[in-house]
Amino acid sequence: MDTLTKVMIKNAFLNCGLATAFINGIISYLTLAKVEMFENTDLVFNFLGTAIGCGIICPFFSGMILKNTIIKKGIQLGDKKKRKLAKWIPNNLFFGALMIGLFSAIFLWMIPYFFAEVFSISFSLSRINWCICLGLYSGIAATFSAYFGVTRAYYARFS
Question: Which residues pair with 125 in a beta bridge?
Fold first, then answer.
């Protein structure tokens, strides 16, 4: 992984992923007060909602991340066609957010789905463990989405 990608992932995590993880963990703790244990189907369904939600919402904040980090540091991303996934994301904010939501649903949701369904792992999580797990997962999903949102915003602005 090159230095540019590391800087962009770090900035996506600090500007979007960290806050999203904290907020989603607290919201899930407060809203799931009556639930004692969560099963595999709850886990897979909630992870799908988190992946799609973060994938669609986070790119709308990517313009601010771009302005505060990438432009201030004078970073050049190069040609859009050379970036593996970024070349498939439209420059339009709305359609770009939908595509990033689709990417995050496909890539990020398949991980817990694969382990829960393919391996038939049966486990239950307590409320606090579920909130921590959902918070961490939403932080990863938000970082993933913000990273691609920043690349979308960069190419929409400079191409």
Answer: 38
